[in-house]
Write a structure and sequence with these properties.
Length: 95
């Protein structure tokens, strides 16, 4: 009868209690809420959304359907905008 041997568990130079010793583990990104990003901002600082304009991370915009939003990411012709109810992807000008 044959016996199967299990492979030894390898450790990457640290305790197995946490992932903090792993050099390939990124620190978790703590994202701010809509309220934290817009608290204290005046209404006139939100510019009307225009598909033909270019936006950058941190820009404040006012969408006719979704309301006030904050640009949280830019990926080519798409922007990620955090609105009060949820995150949405919208288009914007490339140049």
């Amino acid at each position: 009868m044959s016996m199967k041997r299990s492979k030894p568990v390898r450790s990457f130079g640290g305790s197995s209690a946490g992932l903090s010793d792993d050099p390939f583990t990124k620190a978790p990104v703590v994202e701010k809420t809509f309220t934290e990003l817009t608290d204290g901002k005046e209404d006139d600082s939100f510019r009307p959304f225009d598909l033909g304009k270019r936006y950058e991370k941190g820009d404040l915009l006012a969408h006719s359907k979704f309301g006030k939003g904050v640009v949280t990411g830019v990926e080519g012709a798409k922007i990620e905008v955090l609105f009060a109810d949820q995150m949405r992807k919208l288009g914007h000008a490339m140049s």
